[in-house]
Design brief:
Helix content is 34%, strand content 9%. The radius of gyration is 23 Å and the shape is globular. Strands 1, 2, 3, 4, 5, 6, 7, 8 and 9 form a 9-stranded mixed sheet that branches. The chain has 453 residues and is of the alpha/beta class.
């Protein structure tokens, strides 16, 4: 395991080269095209056309839809510690969904307003490097999950708001479900973090007679829809299910009744927010840490309390905390913040000594822009946080590979509807899955040069 991390300069320039006559994992053999990066830093159009002609030979392997196989993506890591990203599947965009969702607008922001830098007005102090997006967009899902794999992240913990059509919860459920094929294709595990307050909201809306009944229906859905999938996250051969709280159901007897939906031998590990396990009683298997006002003091308390007591322990890390709720018109929900400090905050939590003893690490969060805990690339931080994750996990990938995934996303948008180019971009995706990064970059360069404006 790497115990020290270095913040290096982000290599945004791309050095392209092509290995001739190489037989790769897909049994593809290329013609003898070679490129001396020093003598020919800009490949000729004829060379790039030859690259695309080589890729044309595999058109018959392409199936309907973006994903051409469910083969996974094998990633070598020096650090055996499992790392999972807490993920918010709650965004909608005008171009994909027909409207801007409330997590981009809150009460007073309008993403249709674009500033002089080309950035839309969103409810956050930070701006995604790709701009505001829809969680259901397959291009977005491809981009986010490739970024995770290239960083050494092993899976996703989806923030989940129940199975009913209340507020935007149906949209969140639908978005979560739309990720299933892609997480499977890339070999990522996934889990669910249940927000138990939705049970009371279901009662308030007349959709259940009591919170136990409401939560049971949600757990039945989780058991049937998610636990049945082969890549649902397990620990010691038991599914891992999280609750953010509990905040509403705080009686252990109630939780015992809720968990009756699971046969005794099939009950999952159930992890509560730290210092909340007693509210669940015997149904709880452990607790997870979250962002707290007292920052590393909370880490000390958590690890000193729970390590070694046979509970499942989670080494949660975060890059900072900067809530936009008051500025966005949703009211003052936090009177404190934790500065990002140019990556230092994330580094000190990621590298916290006790993480070596925790069962796994939860990244808090991949994309909660409203609370400023996002780790995905932003205009403010670029790839910095993902580069730190790469250092922690010990993958062989570098920032240039993250740039390749970003370039693929941008090409998806620029050439949307061009069937020929979409085929080549599918080939780029497949090359990335096979860790053929130089070839992926060369195909992208060929596409942008020959088809770009």
């Amino acid at each position: 395991m790497r115990n020290k991390f270095k913040i290096g300069a982000l290599a945004l320039g791309i050095v392209i080269f092509f290995i001739s006559c190489e037989k790769d994992i897909e049994n593809e053999k290329f013609i003898g095209v070679s490129l001396d990066a020093e003598k020919e830093s800009v490949p000729s159009d004829s060379l790039l056309r030859a690259v695309l002609e080589e890729e044309d030979a595999f058109r018959e392997d392409t199936k309907a839809g973006r994903i051409v196989d469910i083969s996974g993506m094998h990633v070598e890591k020096e650090n055996p510690k499992k790392v999972y990203a807490h993920y918010m599947p709650w965004f909608q965009s005008l171009d994909y969904d027909g409207f801007w969702g409330q997590h981009w607008t809150m009460a007073n922001k309008d993403p249709n307003i674009v500033d002089s830098l080309g950035q839309r007005e969103i409810a956050s102090y930070y701006y995604p490097i790709i701009g505001p997006y829809s969680s259901k967009d397959p291009d977005l899902q491809e981009y986010h999950l490739l970024m995770m794999k290239l960083s050494g992240i092993d899976g996703v913990i989806f923030d989940w708001y129940g199975s009913r059509n209340i507020y935007d919860y149906q949209l969140i459920k639908s978005s979560t479900n739309s990720f299933m094929r892609r997480v499977n294709d890339l070999g990522l595990d996934f889990s669910i973090m249940y927000e138990d307050r939705v049970a009371q909201q279901a009662v308030d809306e007349g959709l259940a007679t009591n919170v136990i009944e409401a939560a049971q229906l949600d757990f039945e859905y989780i058991k049937t829809k998610y636990f049945s999938r082969p890549n649902y996250l397990k620990h010691d051969d038991k599914e891992l299910l999280f609750v953010f709280g509990p905040e509403t159901i705080v009686d252990s007897t109630a939780w015992n009744n809720i968990f009756s939906v699971f046969p005794e031998a099939e009950k999952p590990h159930f992890l509560t927010l730290w210092a909340a396990q007693d509210a669940v009683g015997d149904s709880a298997s452990g607790e997870f840490l979250w962002v707290a006002e007292d920052h590393l003091v909370a880490h000390d308390y958590y690890y000193d309390t729970y390590l070694g007591n046979n509970s499942v322990t989670v080494g949660s890390t975060y890059p900072g905390f900067d809530s936009f709720y008051e500025a966005g018109g949703w009211g003052l929900q936090h009177e404190w913040g934790i500065t990002h400090n140019a990556g230092t905050t994330f580094l000190e939590t990621l590298n916290y000594t006790h993480h070596e003893a925790a069962d796994f690490v939860q990244l808090v969060t991949w994309n909660d822009f409203g609370e400023g805990t996002m780790l995905e690339p932003t205009e403010e931080f670029g790839f910095l946080n993902l580069q730190l994750i790469q250092e922690y996990t010990g993958v062989t990938y570098e920032p240039i590979d993250l740039q390749t995934a970003l370039d693929l996303y941008r090409a998806r948008k620029e050439f949307a509807g061009n069937v020929d180019v979409e085929y080549y971009l599918d080939r780029v995706y497949r090359k990335i899955k096979k860790s053929k990064m130089e070839r992926a970059r060369l195909i992208l360069l060929a596409v942008n040069t020959i088809y770009g404006s």
